[in-house]
Design a protein that fits this description.
This protein is α+β, with helices and mostly antiparallel strands and 261 residues long. It has helices at residues 2-5, 106-126, 136-140, 179-195, 197-214, 224-230, 233-242, and strands at 14-16, 21-23, 28-30, 35-36, 65-66, 74-75, 145-148, 151-156, 164-166, 169-173. It has seven helices and ten strands. Helix 4 (179-195) crosses helix 5 and helix 4 (179-195) packs across helix 7 (233-242). The longest helix has 21 residues, at 106-126. InterPro entries: Rhs_assc_core, T6SS_VgrG/RHS.
Length: 261
Amino acid sequence: NLSEKNPYRYRGYRFDEETGWYYLNSRYYNPEWGRFINQDGILGETGDLLGHNLYAYTQNNPVIRQDSSGYCYESINPGLGLGAPSTCGGGSGNGGRGMVSNSSTNEGKVKRQKLQKSAIIKDLSLIGFNPYNSNEDLVLESTYFSFYKGSPIIWHNIPNQSSAGVFGMVFLNSNTGTKQTLKHEWGHNQQERILGTPLYLLVVAAPSVYYNKTGDYRNYRDPKRERMYYSKVWERIADWFGGVDRNNYDPFWSKSNFVPW
């Protein structure tokens, strides 16, 4: 009869008449045993014992979404602008550099983690997995993570937050991070190594953040703006450690260079 010729049965799953199993795109289900006969390929990778959501493919919306692989859904017609974005990966903004925005579904989280992991491995392969890499260009080619002269480099795209060198690491803003920025923030790492973290936070990081947020340099335009900011003694010494020469500093012993305002 017609029901035997139609391979799509319970919940639209394809029925394999030869084996008597249902195929759910990523694995087979045996209705007699009440068990899946294939291991969940994503099971446990995020610490979630459930792995796949077994009963909510395409987030229960098969009208505008499809799940052609059994691992993640995507919009049938992205041009319609309907529904949630695809969980099949991809970064958001900045060419995919820095933090990734994705769906909160379990499949989306797993896919995101896999993408990030492979991207980090690719980043490290650029520098030959050498933590003492000294090539700034290779660091700037990375997407998430790298090393520069012993310091871990982490890219970020946090709104309204600049680059920073603290706790022995460099946090580079993906929108403004340049070779000069990398070298300058690495210079801050050297200040921290010499002073120790508590003293560094007190006499370098704190005045640097304060002046960055409130300093009168913000009322000017480059090159005066840059000169005023990097002439501050804590910034100028970081430049010196990092090998940066801006050629427009104020006289070193100017009183204004020693106060964070």
